Fold each of these.
Amino acid sequence: MNTLQTQKDEDFIERSRDTILSLGYDFIVFKSRAKKSLTTLKKHITSFHL
């Protein structure tokens, strides 16, 4: 019984770790896209004012 619980715990930890890693990756991708959009927006605003 104890080994079954340990296996369940390990599976849960593994799934949690995968979820956290995938969320972290999505966040990094989102951040880099947001940064690019912001840079593009700044260029448009600057060229508009000139």
Amino acid sequence: MSFILSAISALLSPRQFREGDWGFWFGTSGYLLGASVLILRSPLYLQRPVALGLYGLSLLGNCYLVSPTSGLEWFLPFFFLKILVSHLLPETPYYTGISQDLHQD
């Protein structure tokens, strides 16, 4: 979670182009923190689908809830993809209790 808190500072760069729009910063930071908590508290086998669903909601919010930052329309979608789907999820795949041996004769 400390990584997420340090990554929020990257959201200050689009705020500079939004003429001090603190509502944008608090809204996107709050969504990032809330989505991160939901992903990390979900069971391991559901973390990837939950992360992708919350990323999809962030795309819809970026298109319909907030006005895009002129010249940085690409920033939020890639930033949320990087944080929610790439960095937050564990690298190991989830296996059930069933053996995954594919080379049985």
Amino acid sequence: MRWYRDTFAPNVPYTELMNIAERSLPGARGVLFLPHLSGERSPQLDPDTRAAWVNLSLAHTQADITRAVLEGVVFSLGEVLEVISAIAPVHQLLATGGGARSNIWLRILAEILQTQLIAPKAEEGAAYGAAILAMVGVGTYPNLEAAFKMLPQDSNTVQPQANPVYEEAFKQYRSHCTKPLKLFVDRTSSPKVGG
């Protein structure tokens, strides 16, 4: 989201971008964003694939494009979650950091991932999640479910709702990811990150 904001909406606060995204519908009115700005690492290791908006037309708005970015990131997370779930089923996820304060972001995550989200009111972000994992690792709690019970009761819990629009959009996302975008790039003149 930082790249999108810095590139297309440099003076717009994240909270306003979330408000803009909320003006679009689930599925971003058909726009898909493939978030492979630096290639793809998981579950398909391919450093040469690139990002793209798919199905973009003159009829689409800033709200559709912004929401497509959010949804595309979550579709990518969904592919990773499927790999993890094949090893160990996941029923809850802990959402921390700035995005966890956004209701639309939490709803998109829960609906696409079809997993309950718990967003603690704590501001510690990644350190908070790491501490919870460490407590399970050292045996303070027998598993993540028990550790989640220690979270403050004022946590925001978001239950997944089935959404056929997201189910279809995820299929479309996957079909585009199986044919990664590898356009000809003159490596001597392509922009470098940070320069």
